[in-house]
C-alpha cells in the first residue's frame, strides 16, 4: 500500500463503527462485525470485465466513497491500511481455498487474510471471504471451537501452516489453508491478476455477492438469491431478469446501479 494513509473517519462512517479508536481485541472484533454487515462481498467488476486495481486510493474510492463491495484482495488490503492507521500490528498472508474442494485438488494461493496482534493475543481477521463468511476475529492461540454469528469456527495447525475450519454442529470442514509466510505485494498482485482475469477462475465464471445480516446471511450465486436466517427457513428464489438482479442488489446488499446496467457477456450464467 506504500505511503497511502486511509481516511479512517470516512471508513468509520461507512461501516457505522462506534467503538473506541484504540487497538484492542474488542475493537478489532467490532470492526469486523460492522464491516461484514455494511460492505458486501461482490465480484461484479470481474464479471463485467473491468480491472481490479489494488492501490489505496482506488480501494478507498470503491469501498468507502463509492458504496461498493469487492472481493478478498480489495477488502483485506484496504483494512490492512485502516488497521495499521489505527495502531494495530497487521500482517497479510495468502491462503488456498478448501471449501467444497476435493481433498486431492491443490488450489492456488488466491485468498488473502490478515493476522493482527491485539491485547488479547494474535487474531485471524478476514472480511473478504464470500462463501462462508468469517464474522469474528478468531483467536490463533487455541485450536478449540470458537462461536461466531455464522456458526462454529476453529483454526487448526497443519504442517507449517494453519487451516480454518467450519461446522454447523456436524463434522468439521476445511474453509481455507493459510500459507505460513507473510505475503509481499508481488504475491497479491499476481494472485489478483489470476483471480480477476484467468478464464478458469471461479470469479470469472460466476457472479457472486454475499453479505452478513443481523440474523443471518444473504447471497447471490449467478441467478439464485439465498437468504439464510439463524432461526428460520432458508429462502431461495431465481432472479428471472437483469431487472430482478438490480433490484436484489439494491434491496439485500445496498448496491445501486443505474437502470440498464448489465454484467457479463451474452450466454453467461448470470442475467445480462
Describe the structure.
By secondary structure, this protein is of the alpha+beta class. It has eight helices and 13 strands. The chain has helices at residues 8-15, 25-38, 44-47, 56-65, 72-85, 185-197, 202-205, 242-253; strands at 41-42, 89-97, 109-118, 121-125, 138-139, 146-148, 151-158, 161-167, 173-182, 208-213, 216-221, 224-229, 235-238. The strands form two sheets. Strands 5-4-3-2-9-8-7-6 form an eight-stranded antiparallel β-sheet. A hairpin with a 2-residue loop joins strand 11 and strand 12. Helix 4 (56-65) crosses helix 5. The radius of gyration is 18 Å and the shape is globular. The two termini are 35 Å apart. The model has no long low-confidence stretch (mean pLDDT 92).
Provide a brief overview of the structure.
With 272 residues, the protein is α+β, with helices and mostly antiparallel strands. The protein is built from eight helices and 13 strands. It has helices spanning 8-15, 25-38, 44-47, 56-65, 72-85, 185-197, 202-205, 242-253; strands at 41-42, 89-97, 109-118, 121-125, 138-139, 146-148, 151-158, 161-167, 173-182, 208-213, 216-221, 224-229, 235-238.
Amino acid at each position: 500500500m506504500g505511503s497511502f494513509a486511509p481516511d479512517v473517519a470516512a471508513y468509520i462512517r461507512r461501516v457505522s463503527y462506534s467503538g473506541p479508536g484504540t487497538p484492542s481485541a474488542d475493537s478489532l472484533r467490532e470492526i469486523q462485525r460492522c464491516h461484514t454487515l455494511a460492505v458486501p462481498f461482490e465480484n461484479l467488476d470481474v464479471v463485467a470485465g473491468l480491472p481490479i486495481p489494488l492501490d489505496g486510493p482506488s480501494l478507498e474510492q470503491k469501498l468507502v466513497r463509492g458504496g461498493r463491495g469487492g472481493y478478498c484482495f480489495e477488502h483485506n488490503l484496504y483494512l490492512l491500511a485502516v488497521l495499521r492507521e489505527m495502531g494495530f500490528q497487521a500482517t497479510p498472508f495468502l491462503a488456498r481455498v478448501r471449501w467444497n474442494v476435493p481433498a486431492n485438488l491443490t488450489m492456488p494461493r488466491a485468498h488473502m487474510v490478515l493476522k493482527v496482534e491485539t491485547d488479547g493475543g494474535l487474531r485471524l481477521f478476514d472480511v473478504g471471504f464470500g462463501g462462508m463468511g468469517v464474522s469474528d476475529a478468531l483467536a490463533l492461540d487455541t485450536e478449540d471451537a470458537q462461536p461466531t454469528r455464522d456458526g462454529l469456527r476453529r483454526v487448526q495447525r497443519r504442517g507449517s501452516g494453519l487451516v480454518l475450519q467450519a461446522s454447523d454442529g456436524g463434522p468439521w470442514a476445511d474453509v481455507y489453508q493459510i500459507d505460513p509466510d507473510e505475503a509481499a505485494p508481488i504475491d497479491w498482485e499476481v494472485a489478483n491478476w489470476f483471480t480477476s482475469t484467468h478464464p478458469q477462475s471461479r470469479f470469472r465464471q460466476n457472479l457472486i455477492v454475499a453479505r452478513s445480516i443481523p440474523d443471518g446471511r444473504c447471497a447471490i450465486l449467478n441467478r439464485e438469491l439465498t437468504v439464510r436466517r439463524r432461526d428460520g427457513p432458508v429462502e431461495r428464489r431465481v432472479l428471472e431478469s437483469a431487472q430482478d438482479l438490480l433490484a436484489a442488489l439494491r434491496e439485500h446488499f445496498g448496491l445501486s446501479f443505474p437502470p440498464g446496467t448489465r454484467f457479463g457477456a451474452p450466454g453467461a450464467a448470470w442475467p445480462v
